[in-house]
Amino acid sequence: MSEDTTSPTRLRKAVRQKLESLARSGVTHVPAPKLLKAARVSEPVSAARAKSQPAQIGGATRQFPGAAQDLPQAPAAQIPAAGTGADSLEIIASEVAGCTLCKELADTRNRTVPGVGNPRPRLMFLGEAPGADEDRQGEPFVGRAGQLLTQMIENGMGIKRKDVFIGNILKCRPPGNRTPTPEEAANCRCFLDRQLAILKPEFICCLGAVAAQNLLASDKAIGKLRGQLHNYRGMTVVCTYHPAYLLRTPAAKKDTWADLQVLMKAMGLPLPTST
Ligand code: SF4
Question: For residues 10 and 5, which has the higher predicted lDDT (pLDDT)?
Fold first, then answer.
């Protein structure tokens, strides 16, 4: 006998699993309309009864008991999740500016660095976290590493920096430029995922191990992840070394140039002819 997929028990279980999955991926708030929509799914089951008496589940007023208390308690400033049509880069940036989820970073930062560039980019560059220059200016990749990134984009790939979007896994600078902790990356992930839902880049270039491993949920070394195409939610991803690493290790520039050519080929950009 087939199972009734519209039964209140099954629906409660499905909602609980979805909420737990969202919470694990860093979502701390779910817009009310989605919950209302989910609740309506069960209405046809008891529509006749609803006409004669208040809808009840297990003796309680119809709702998903357990679902509400399972929702993480989000601060009042939390905003709609991606894809509701109400989100924007500006809203995300203003939330980031007031975010204190990572206490140490919020206490020590000068500026938050949500990201910058073309709001409809074909290509997004994703780094690790702001450094000292970025923390001062509120913009990603503006120091020496940023200048090298600009050269990679404009001289190497032949496209304008203003035509891509540039962001980081973390929107706040870790003190002393230390590596972001997994907890910090998880805290900030909802902002990145919402940005990606708005930007919808066809291609993402991860700069360095932190960006690559976090985006792709991989523990492989950057040396293993680079040089090939990956997929993240339908977006084509190429990983390469972080420009800051290239400044310290110029010999790795040839590998990064090879990675950029993999990316350019995938994007259909003309490769330079060898002389
Ligand atoms: S790094 Fe991200 S999650 Fe952490 S405080 Fe800054 S904006 Fe919030």
Answer: 10
Question: For a substitution probing ligand 1, which of 91, 135, 177, 188 has the most ligand atoms within 8 Å of its CB?
Answer: 188
Closest CA to 26 of 146, 196, 267: 196
Nearest protein CA to atom 2 of ligand 1, as residue: 188
pLDDT digits over 149-165, tens only?
Answer: 999 999 999 999 999 99
Report yes or no on 15 lying in a domain.
no
**Atom of ligand 1 minimally distant from the CA of 99:** 8
Closest ligand 1 atom to residue 180 Cα is 1
Question: 207: domain CATH number?
Answer: 3.40.470.10
Tokens (6 digits) for 105:
């970073």
The reply to whether 16 falls in a domain is no
Interval 95-151: pLDDT, tens: 999 999 999 999 999 999 999 999 999 999 999 999 999 999 999 999 999 999 999
Measured in angstroms, how far is the CA atom of residue 65 from the centroid of ligand 1? 32
Residue 66 half-sphere exposure toward CB, CA atoms < 13 A = 14
Structural domain range at position 240: 89-267
